[in-house]
């Protein structure tokens, strides 16, 4: 049956990925048993290790969810990285501008600010695509470099900490920092924001007329035009939500983890988000699962580096291999995926 073929093809991908991983470990001169033990120990070896997986998964869930929402309506968002940076700018500016607000007002305000600024940064390419047919792949990618450069300017000028010679802002006021969920870890309330966003997006996209229109536009924009569904409105709407979610990821990184704005605040979460959305098949639940898997891969690779001397760059290679195998799945496992 086709279902069993899907299962077997995924099992084949897992076996190929494992074989390539073993080959890479042998190539760098490490022992396979020690490498895999250190990998698992890096993920499950302590309560702190498990919490670190959740810490890294939080921005991946939000940015991956943003990319997935855009993809559902045909908006290919390559700009989640820049939108994350705009969210980071928003939380920093709001926190310093309204530093007297209590936390009960400040936290919702910075999250809203991050959503708005990230959404605005994304809706510009969305408008250009919907109105003029300009490729959003190019515009969103270019906007990444602009946003990153804006952060670089701000942390050297108006947002620079006068007490430090380094390009970074001062620490945020306590009212603008997200609470820690578990003591002795870095796990913060941004995880709750990410999970709430997952639930809200699932309801929006699959349980509302607006979500139906967004999915319809992604499947067949020409048919939507003929049936009276506005392609323009839905692309702009999805681009706004897509960038807004990535902006919230920037808020969580600043407010929950670093507590200040600095250069390089994201190690490429916005780009990894594309892989997260692809592996999750642009579904909220799939995004959560793939984000957790990639976060575990990153945390485990750090354990391999510490205990077995295996370079962490292997994790990036493995991610690339998995993506390529999934893209080529229909060709590699054609017979298994065909109805009997």
From TrEMBL:
Residue stretches spanning the membrane: 7-29, 75-98, 104-128, 140-159, 187-206, 310-328
Gene Ontology MF terms: transmembrane transporter activity
Annotated GO CC locations: plasma membrane
Superkingdom, taxonomy of origin: Bacteria
rRNA-binding keyword on record: no
Chief subcellular location: membrane
InterPro entries assigned: ABC_transp_permease
Keywords, sorted A to Z: Cell membrane, Membrane, Transmembrane, Transmembrane helix
Membrane topology: Multi-pass membrane protein
UniProt subcellular location: Cell membrane
Keyword Transmembrane part of the UniProt annotation: yes
PANTHER family membership: ABC TRANSPORTER, PERMEASE PROTEIN (PTHR47089), GUANOSINE ABC TRANSPORTER PERMEASE PROTEIN NUPP (PTHR47089:SF1)
Protein's name according to its UniProt entry: ABC-type uncharacterized transport system, permease component
């Amino acid at each position: 049956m086709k279902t069993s073929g899907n299962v077997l093809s995924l099992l084949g991908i897992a076996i190929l990925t494992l074989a390539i991983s073993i080959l890479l470990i042998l190539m760098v001169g490490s022992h396979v048993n020690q490498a895999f033990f250190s990998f698992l120990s890096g993920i499950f070896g302590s309560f702190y290790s498990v919490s670190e997986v959740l810490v890294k998964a939080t921005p991946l869930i939000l940015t991956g969810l943003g990319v997935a929402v855009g993809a559902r309506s045909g908006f290919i968002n390559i700009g989640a990285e820049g939108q994350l940076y705009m969210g980071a700018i928003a939380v920093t500016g709001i926190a310093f501008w309204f530093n007297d607000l209590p936390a009960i007002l400040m936290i919702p305000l910075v999250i809203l600010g991050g959503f708005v600024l990230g959404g605005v940064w994304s809706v510009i390419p969305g408008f250009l695509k919907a109105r003029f047919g300009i490729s959003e792949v190019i515009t969103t990618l270019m906007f990444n470099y602009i946003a990153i450069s804006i952060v670089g300017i701000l942390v050297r000028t108006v947002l620079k900490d006068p007490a430090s010679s380094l390009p970074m802002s001062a620490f945020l006021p306590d009212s603008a920092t997200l609470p820690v969920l578990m003591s002795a870890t870095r796990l913060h309330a941004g995880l709750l924001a990410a999970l709430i966003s997952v639930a809200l997006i699932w309801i929006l996209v699959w349980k509302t007329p607006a979500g139906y229109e967004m999915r319809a536009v992604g499947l067949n924009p020409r048919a939507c035009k003929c049936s009276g569904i506005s392609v323009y409105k839905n692309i702009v709407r999805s681009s706004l939500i897509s960038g807004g979610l990535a902006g919230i990821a920037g808020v969580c990184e600043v407010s929950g983890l670093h507590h200040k704005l600095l250069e390089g605040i994201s190690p490429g979460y916005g780009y990894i988000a594309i892989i997260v959305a692809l592996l999750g098949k642009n579904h909220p639940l799939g995004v959560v699962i793939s984000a957790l898997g990639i976060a575990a891969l990153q945390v485990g690779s750090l354990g391999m580096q510490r205990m077995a001397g295996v370079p962490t760059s292997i994790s990036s290679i493995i991610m690339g291999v998995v993506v390529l195998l999934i893209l080529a799945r229909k060709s590699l496992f054609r017979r298994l995926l065909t109805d009997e």
